Amino acid sequence: MSGGVDSSVAAALLQARGHDVVGVTLQQWPRDDTAEAARHGGCCSLSAVEDARRVASLLDIPYYCWNLEKEFGERVIEPFHRAYLEGRTPNPCVRCNAFVRFDLMLARVLALGFDRLATGHYARVLNGGELHAAIDPAKDQSYMLYHLDRERLARIVFPLGGMTKAEVREHAREFELPVADKAESQEICFVPRGETAKYLATRLPVAIGAVVDASGRELGTHRGTALYTVGQRTGFGSLSEPGPWYVLRVDAPGNRVVVGRRDELAVRRLVLEDVTFIDRREPEPLRCEARLRYHSPAIPATYEDGRLTLDEPFLGAAPGQAAVLYSGTRVLGGGTIAAAA
Fold first, then answer.
1. Which of 168, 169, 173, 338 is buried most deeply by CB count within 10 Å?
2. Tens digit of pLDDT for each residue in 210-240?
3. If one looks up domain 5-174 in CATH, what number appears?
4. CATH class held by domain 264-340
5. Is 96 known to be catalytic?
6. So where are the chain's domains?
7. Which of the following is catalytic: 43, 93, 189, 288?
């Protein structure tokens, strides 16, 4: 229970269906960030814990707050920082789901003797262990869950996967939940909304360096490679030639940001790393549809031996982002974008 409307409705629906429900919130915030967390009200912040506790009290279910601060720091926050230092653009929500919520938390849930772990994610488990996209494409979170396998999916429940957000809020009002009209939480829970550059600048070493074009010609200076991502159009300051310019590559070791015109962002072939499949292994070459950013349209593609070939070009495939492979609504698996091939 994150304190939001989604997990609160999930708990209420399961209780209404006759299940014995226990509410759990993960306390993941580093202690020196607690005040900041409370200020912007992300999931698992102090205000979110209080909202979750209120809902649990209203439903008259047991409620616990588990401290996974150390593990969250090691498995999510530290890799987030390292990725930016390496010139990559990480997705911490993917790592949180893969290595905290549906790894550490699920293991503890099962060790304590519970049958299932339920969350407010918008996704569906069908046909005895297949992961499918949610009914509501605007809220679908299956992209974040591609690390799951059939064994874990058999122990996971997503009560909201067949609903729209409007339907979830209506259920919240029917249950008279105090979070029925609560605003959406942001995507990166430990970074204030719209302040990623500020967050990184206060935590990572940044140094002024050169902005160059693809041929190496210097056009101006940047404020630190950790503050840029592939596809970015702003934040360069004054360059020697008129724009628009887009980030093509972040060369962290060389402290350079490589820029170009929009059409230079187009890629058709990608190298993937850390590839996993829900069914352990899929036949290759594998025809599929690939999503290369959260909520980006799926592109027909072929995957084989760590390489993804797109049927049409994609603009701004950023190393560090997830490439998730689908067959219709079914998630096959995915991996991390390492580079353009």
1. 168
2. 999 999 999 999 999 999 999 999 888 789 9
3. 3.40.50.620
4. mainly beta
5. yes
6. 5-174, 205-260, 264-340
7. 189
